[in-house]
Q: What sequence folds into this?
């Protein structure tokens, strides 16, 4: 929860990927309260009140996954809405004069999108595809399959990083999304 809050403030892309990782972790723990406490809460160096708050937050995520029918796979609607917001921002950045750097990064990625889309196996927006590719790359790295991960990271990371930065600046009122 504390990490998620910080990531939400600092980098929306890291926040989404972090929550996706927590979803999988909760699934791996079979949503069990005892396991969540033992593996996720107990090791934290915080006071008892903070541990209780953290535990409740993890269990709320677990319950949301159950309520949304995503106990085996899938992502919370909350994160998918953020990804949709990022897709809308991407669409806007593709026409903003001040977003030339973003368009160049995206142009480098664009020829690889069909290959990435084939690995995902279903139709998703370009931004969701980037997130799914980055999450997959993160899992490959954890498994020690570095080559698969490095290619995706090299292509998708610059686009997602610039998109996350634009999102943060837009939230703070530092980026005018309506300039022509």
A:
């Amino acid at each position: 929860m504390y990490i998620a809050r910080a990531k939400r403030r600092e980098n929306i892309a890291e926040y989404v990927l972090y929550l996706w990782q927590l979803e999988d972790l909760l699934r791996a723990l079979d949503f069990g309260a005892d396991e969540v406490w033992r593996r996720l809460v107990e090791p934290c160096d915080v006071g008892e009140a903070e541990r209780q708050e953290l535990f409740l937050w993890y269990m709320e995520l677990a319950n949301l996954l159950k309520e949304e029918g995503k106990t085996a796979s899938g992502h919370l609607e909350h994160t998918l809405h953020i990804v949709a917001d990022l897709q809308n921002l991407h669409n806007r950045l593709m026409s903003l004069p001040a977003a030339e750097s973003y368009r160049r990064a995206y142009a480098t990625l664009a020829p690889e999108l069909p290959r990435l889309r084939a690995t995902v196996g279903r139709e998703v927006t370009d931004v969701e595809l980037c997130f799914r590719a980055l999450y997959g790359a993160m899992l490959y790295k954890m498994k020690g399959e570095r080559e698969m991960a490095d290619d995706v990271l090299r292509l998708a990371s610059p686009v997602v990083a610039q998109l996350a930065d634009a999102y943060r600046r837009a939230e703070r009122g530092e980026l005018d999304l309506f300039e022509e």
Q: What stands out?
A: The mean pLDDT is 91. The two ends are 39 Å apart (CA to CA). The chain has two domains: 2-67, 77-171. The chain is about 75% helix and 0% strand.
